[in-house]
Structures are given as structure tokens and as C-alpha cells.
UniProtKB/TrEMBL annotation:
This is Alpha/beta hydrolase. InterPro entries: AB_hydrolase (IPR050471), AB_hydrolase_1 (IPR000073), AB_hydrolase_fold (IPR029058), Epox_hydrolase-like (IPR000639). Signal peptide: none annotated. Keywords: Hydrolase, Oxidoreductase, Peroxidase. Residues 26-265 form the AB hydrolase-1 domain. It comes from Catenulispora pinistramenti. It holds the Pfam family Abhydrolase_1. It comes from the Bacteria.
Length: 281
């Protein structure tokens, strides 16, 4: 199991688990909250077959990576990614960030620049600013709702993850009781999420929800692809993906009709074609 040390806590190393496969121009896949590298199982084989070097990693607190008490703020998560890219000496790489992973990719570019990055893809992105305030009424997540999520994670994490997995595949505007994916895939999301630390889940959720990434987006200068489901029940496209695309100068927005948050699973073939065309463009 490949690991790189990105930090220390109480004199102990904070190691990030990563997988580095294939050769060619690198593609770095950044998972979303609260998942891990396993979320990319429908993308990795096609990318390898197309001749790409594919790097996936578990963010701190998730999957097989270390689970420290701290370091779940956007700057530290971006620094973790930076150390991984430096460790592997990746160049001309494409960053692909899913959901909260998009926040890490965006903060990385605004903080460390594009010396190692040639393209950016943001999928079901959690941005540009989710929090609703008096000065930002466009946000859709109120502080009271965020506190409720964090309380539920503490009181009954299993039930919360079950509801999250349902929302992950839910088609907005349809009856919530109607199943949209086979039970094994629903269970798979819960299993990936269950490997995360409680601290990592609650802290990173709060950070992603309350951080304003609008200035970070304006700093992006590489060609960018934004893919978002029109029926995303977790992160509505009008409040997230559409605004992200508006903020980036060289950007193409793909709005998938009828697609949920977890479109990398439910619409994997369609998404993979969009991603491959972008990589080859």
C-alpha cells in the first residue's frame, strides 16, 4: 500500500494512502465527502485503457489514510494534495474533483498555481459558496441545517449515512420513496463512507459548507470542465455548478439532464465520454 507523509500530529506521521497506476499524461482523481478512492471504480479502468496515468488518493480522515484530529480546512487539504503531486513529481496533470473534492482542487490551484496542472474538471461541485447569510442569500445551506447534519453524524452516524446514500442517487423532483439505484450500489456508498473518521467527517463538512471559494475560482486559468446533474438533490446545480462555471474564464459547463449527485455511477458511461473528450481536446 503506497503512502506519503504529509504532516505530523503529536510527533506521529500523518500518512496519505494513494494509488498510482498506468503511464502517460496523469489524471488525479479527488474523491468527495465522505467517500474514498473506491468511488472512482467506474472511471479508473477506462482512463487506464486510454493510456493515462491515474492517481487516486484518500484524503486525510477518509478511507485508508491517517485519521488525525486536525487539518480538515481547505488550505491543509490543498497542501496535502500539493505534497502528493510533489512526491510523485507529476506534470501536465489534470485534476478531477468530485463534490467537496472540487473544493480541494480549486484551493490547490489558487494557492499553488498551475505549474503542475494543465486542466481541471469539477464534477457535482460543492461550491462556490454553500452558506446562506444576509450578505449571501444565494447560498442554500443555512447554519441551522449544517448544525443539524453534524449533530446527526454524532448521534446516529449509520442512519445519517443511509440517508446520505439515498440522496446521493436521488433524482430531485421525484418521490423520495422511489428507489433510483440497485441496493448493492446504495450499500457500497455507505460502506465507503463508514471507513471515514467521525472527526474527519464533521470537520470537513463544516469547512466545505462555510468556506467562500469565489475568489479561488477567479484565479483559475487552466481549461476547465464543469459537469453537474440537473436533478442533483444534494447540491442543486443552479446554486453550485452553474455558478462555478460562471466564475471561471475558460470553462465549459455540461448539465446532465435527469442526473443525480452520484452521476459518476448512475451515468458513468456518459460522464466518462465527456471527461475523455475533455482530456483529449
Amino acid at each position: 500500500m503506497a503512502r506519503v507523509t504529509v504532516d505530523k500530529e503529536n510527533h506521529l506521521p500523518v500518512d496519505i494512502h494513494y494509488e498510482d497506476r498506468g503511464s502517460g499524461r496523469p489524471v488525479v482523481l479527488i474523491h468527495g465527502w465522505p467517500l474514498s478512492v473506491g468511488q472512482w471504480e467506474f472511471q479508473v479502468p477506462g482512463l487506464l485503457a486510454a493510456g493515462h496515468r491515474v492517481v487516486t488518493y484518500d484524503g486525510r480522515g477518509f478511507g485508508a489514510s491517517a485519521k488525525p484530529r486536525g487539518g480538515y480546512d481547505p488550505d491543509t487539504l490543498a497542501a496535502d494534495l500539493h505534497m502528493l503531486l510533489e512526491h510523485l513529481d507529476l506534470r501536465e496533470a489534470t485534476l478531477v474533483g468530485f463534490s467537496s473534492g472540487a473544493c480541494t482542487a480549486v484551493r490547490y490551484l489558487s494557492r499553488f498555481g498551475n505549474q503542475r496542472i494543465s486542466r481541471l474538471a469539477l464534477v457535482s461541485a460543492a461550491g462556490p459558496y454553500l452558506r446562506r447569510t444576509g450578505a449571501h442569500p444565494e447560498g442554500f445551506l443555512e447554519d441551522s441545517k449544517l448544525r443539524e447534519y453534524q449533530r446527526c453524524l454524532t448521534d446516529d452516524r449509520v442512519s445519517f449515512l443511509h440517508r446520505f446514500a439515498t440522496k446521493f442517487f436521488e433524482i430531485a423532483g421525484t418521490p423520495a420513496s422511489r428507489p433510483t439505484m440497485p441496493q448493492p450500489l446504495h450499500t457500497r456508498v455507505i460502506m465507503l463512507a463508514a471507513a471515514a473518521s467521525h472527526r474527519g467527517m464533521t470537520e470537513s463538512l463544516g469547512q466545505a459548507a462555510t468556506t467562500d471559494f469565489r475568489n479561488d475560482l477567479r484565479a483559475i486559468t487552466v481549461p476547465t470542465l464543469v459537469v453537474h446533474g440537473e436533478a442533483d438533490a444534494l447540491l442543486p446545480v443552479e446554486s453550485t455548478g452553474a455558478l462555478v462555471a460562471e466564475a471561471v474564464s475558460d470553462c465549459r459547463l455540461v448539465r446532465m439532464q435527469g442526473a443525480p449527485h452520484g452521476l459518476i455511477v448512475t451515468r458513468a458511461a456518459e460522464f466518462n465520454r465527456e471527461l475523455m473528450a475533455f482530456l483529449e481536446g
